[in-house]
Amino acid sequence: MKFLSSRRRHPAAKPLLLLVALFLVGGLYAVVAPSTQSSADTGNSQMIEEGKNLYAVGCSSCHGMNGEGGTQGPSLVGVGGAAVDFQVGTGRMPMAQQGIQAPRKQVQYTQEQIDQLAAYVDSLGPGPAIPEEEQYTTEGLSEEQIARGGELFRTNCSACHNFEGSGGAMPNGKEAPTLKDVDPKHIYEAMRTGPQEMPVFSKEVISDEDARSVIAYLEELHQQPGGGLTLGGLGPVTEGFWAWVVGIGGLCLFAVWITSKGARAK
């Protein structure tokens, strides 16, 4: 102690003390940081384990005990958490019964359980992850960006989902579902995972910004008043057909009525 006391006024004492303090802070951080990472890993492992238990009860009978697929369901290896969030979050899975297509219905799981199932399927192989809100939110988009979303929708989607996004018939008894009242997150996930007959739109084909524009276009489109008899929004051909049938039919009936009146007058 006498040795330290005699040298505390030395010019190098303060820099040395500063270095010692920095070493101590660095040491403390090194001790704490691995602990935080370990906690995160533990939490993720627990989610995967919980998801595995849910999977065994609700999904394994069709998709196999380890997601390898079976005669009644495809493999889930590599489909990613986004596919799980879409299929389970829209009630399409688990299916009530085998059919040509899984329809949208009441959701059977809580969002926490869906996240656990997604974590387990994610652990089977890499695939599209559940998106962050910034990837599908429509806030802050300009009218120009929304108009571009309309062009993209008409080019890539309207052939199946029709011009209004109200759905349409597909070959072999299948259908493209309506996009009205669909959560923006689920529209984004459908683009990235290609459920059922839908093709996959990667980020190289439709970027996140373009995906947001498409979603914003649909929101704006569905906020517009329909006005009159829309006939399901099937387009001018169907509407023109019914206008022709009703118009010509009315004229024919009128001609028959006039003829019958003339005949009676004679």
From TrEMBL:
Its EC number is 7.1.1.8. The chain crosses the membrane at residues 241-260. The cytochrome bc1 complex is composed of a cytochrome b (QcrB), the Rieske iron-sulfur protein (QcrA) and a diheme cytochrome c (QcrC) subunit. Heme c 1 binds at C59, C62, H63. It comes from Naumannella halotolerans. Binds 2 heme c groups covalently per subunit. It comes from the Bacteria. This is Cytochrome bc1 complex cytochrome c subunit. GO terms for cellular component: plasma membrane. One of its GO terms (molecular function) is heme binding.
